[in-house]
Structures are given as structure tokens and as C-alpha cells.
Specification:
- By secondary structure, the protein is α+β, with helices and mostly antiparallel strands.
- Strand 4 and strand 5 form a beta hairpin.
- The radius of gyration is 21 Å and the shape is globular.
- The protein starts with 8 loop residues before the first strand and ends in a 12-residue tail after the last helix.
- Bound molecules: flavin-adenine dinucleotide (FAD).
- The site of flavin-adenine dinucleotide has 12 residues, from helix 6.
- Flavin-adenine dinucleotide (FAD) binds next to helix 6.
Amino acid sequence: VSFVDHNSYTLTYCRFGTTGTPGDIGAVIVPHDAPGFSHSKGTVNMADELLFELEFDGCRVPRENILLDGAAFAKLISVYNAERLGSIARMLGSANAAFNEALDYAKTRRQFGREIGEFQGIQWMLAEMKVKLDAAQLMTYRAASNAGDGLPNRLETSLAKVYTAQAAKEICDDAIQIMGANGYTKEYPLAHRYAEVRGGSIYGGTLQIHKNMIARELLGQKRSRDAKPSS
Ligand SMILES: Cc1cc2nc3c(=O)[nH]c(=O)nc-3n(C[C@H](O)[C@H](O)[C@H](O)COP(=O)(O)OP(=O)(O)OC[C@H]3O[C@@H](n4cnc5c(N)ncnc54)[C@H](O)[C@@H]3O)c2cc1C
């Protein structure tokens, strides 16, 4: 879990029932000074941010800290789509910045007596990056604008997430390639941008989980076939 050292509370999803289905799941606000709550010192991730493990050992909180007590999973997850869309927009911003940096570099870096932007190999990379960037932007904006005053649609959010996460990785990777050894150093921001967008394929639901959700929606299935009730 990220940003634990900046927060005094953690919103924790937990089971209220024993049916072993998502219907058991509700949410509790756990203050970080609650008895039985602790967290690790944090591990540095690729993007130089800290990730923490949380431990709940007989943790007790007042009854009023119960936000939703079971049968609330659908509600919790639908709100989560708004948070997901925010992280998709963040990936889009990083990919956009990487594209612009590579574009500027291609216009100024000279090799073999000409700007590298005159080589077709570089031109096609830039063209493909722009196609992916615009497609990701349109999918993200569609999910956001269709939300109107409400919450983003589950399918549109997952579609935007899968495409943008993949496109952002490829755009950052191509930007590094265009900038050669400079792109690979930490003097330039691309290594950090790549590390940052890489996490987006994992947090907020991994790409595999989002593909499961897209397929479930397309096939009209309520639950994943491989989801087994916990014992
Ligand atoms: C930068 C970052 C920030 C994070 N911040 C938070 C946070 O603030 N709060 C929070 O609660 N969590 C946070 N997380 C945790 C994140 O939500 C989990 O890492 C994520 O849900 C994946 O869980 P896992 O790491 O245990 O991987 P696992 O669930 O162990 O998955 C391992 C691999 O198996 C695949 N897999 C698992 N199940 C299936 C399936 N049914 N079908 C197909 N493939 C499957 C996964 O896609 C993945 O490739 C953060 C993670 C990162 C990287």
C-alpha cells in the first residue's frame, strides 16, 4: 500500500460475512494508532516511492468507523473506478511528457550529418507513439465524459486502463530508444517516467484482472469462473 507514511487512516476492505462471496465485503476506517494495527518501514519501488505492508493483529476500531458493513462490494468497487480513472490520467500525462521530450530530442540531436528526426526509423516510432497516445487519450476521455456527474462506467474504465497502461509503457520505452544512452540515464526524466507508468499495470487491478472483468462483461458472466470461495 502506498502513501501510508503520509496518512493517519487507512480505508480497509474486510469480510463481515462468512459466505465466501464478494457480498461479505464491507469497509472500515482504521486509524493508524488503533491497537493491533502496524505497518512495515516501507520498501522502495522502481519509481523511488515507498510501498508498505499493513498488519492487523487483533486490531479493534470503534463501531462508528464502519463505513459499509457487507453487501457493499459493488458500491465500493464502483467508487474505485473514479480512483482508477485518476491513475489512468496520470499514466497518460507521463506518456504525453515522454512523447514530447522524444519529439524535441529528435528535432535537435544530430547524427551522420542530419537531425535524427530525418531518419525514417525514428519518424515511424514517433508516428506510432502519437497514434497510441491519441487512442489512449480518447478512451480515457470517453470514460470521464460519460461519467457526467456520476461514477465512471466499469467497462469503459477497464478498457481505458488496459489500453493506456500498455500504450504508456510502449511510448516511454520508445522515447528512451529515441534518446539513446541519454534516455537511459537518470539525468533525463524518462527512466523515472517508465518506472512510474510500469506500476500502473499492477496497482488499481492488474491488467490481467481488468481483462477478466472486460471478458466477464462481454460474456454477461457475473463472476470469474476461476474465482473460488475462500474457506
Ligand atoms: C505502485 C503501487 C502502489 C500501490 N498502492 C496500493 C494502495 O494504495 N492500496 C492498496 O490496497 N494496494 C496498493 N497496491 C497493491 C496493488 O493493488 C496490488 O499489487 C495488486 O492488486 C496486485 O496484487 P499482488 O501484487 O498481490 O499480485 P498477485 O495478486 O499475486 O498477482 C500476481 C500475478 O498473477 C496475476 N493474477 C492473479 N490473479 C489472476 C487471475 N484471476 N487471472 C489472471 N491473472 C491473475 C496478476 O495479474 C499478476 O500478474 C499498490 C501496488 C503498486 C505496485
